[in-house]
Amino acid sequence: MTTDRAAAPAAGWRPMREADLGAVVAIAGAVHPGYPERPAILAERLHRHAPGCLLLETAAGPGGYVLSHPWRLWDIPKLDTPLGPLPEAPDAYYIHDLALLPGARGGGRGAAAVVLLLAEAARLGLGTAALVAVGGSVPFWAARGFAEATRPALRASLASYDAAARYMLAPVPVRAAVP
Fold it and tell me: Where, if anywhere, are coiled coils annotated (predicted)?
């Protein structure tokens, strides 16, 4: 996989497909080596909520992915653990992972994915988006309206990621329903 930035203008997000899972596993390993998840876990995220799973296509090939789904506010899904059935009455939209290879970063690709995810949350009628920010990504998420949210009960869940992990929330704008 090349990381040629000259290919950037041809990049775009599209729905993830089962056939993309090999690329997703490879990207996850490259971008998040400290947060490994088995291929079956990544596949389960796709199967649980396909509309929240996207792949970034670039002229050089897959450049990133997003996994997201309806969930419960203040409940952090454990890494490398099956979700099981999605909640019948979710009250948040959880962004499990937004991963971009270095050559696919810049040019607003991550921000474009967030717009699409918030539109999906709005389509589902969910008023809050949630995530765990890792790897120094707090400034990226803060620039998109997410703010750190804390509760003592979250400490153990966050520590399973790393000491710098932060639970973040953002309101889902009603206008997000029309991307």
Answer: none
Largest CA distance in the chain: 46
Could you tell me if 65 and 56 are in contact, meaning their C-beta atoms sit under 8 angstroms apart? yes
Class of domain 5-177: alpha beta
Are 55 and 101 a contacting pair, CB within 8 Å? no
H helical segments located in the chain:
21-31, 39-48, 109-123, 138-142, 155-159
Give the pTM.
Answer: 0.90
- Give per-residue pLDDT as tens, 80-130: 999 999 999 999 999 999 999 999 998 899 999 999 999 999 999 999 999
Reduced to 3 states (helix: H, G, I; strand: E, B; else coil), residue 154 is helix
Buried b (16+ CB within 10 A) or exposed e, 50-72: ebbbbbbbbebebbbbbbbbbbe
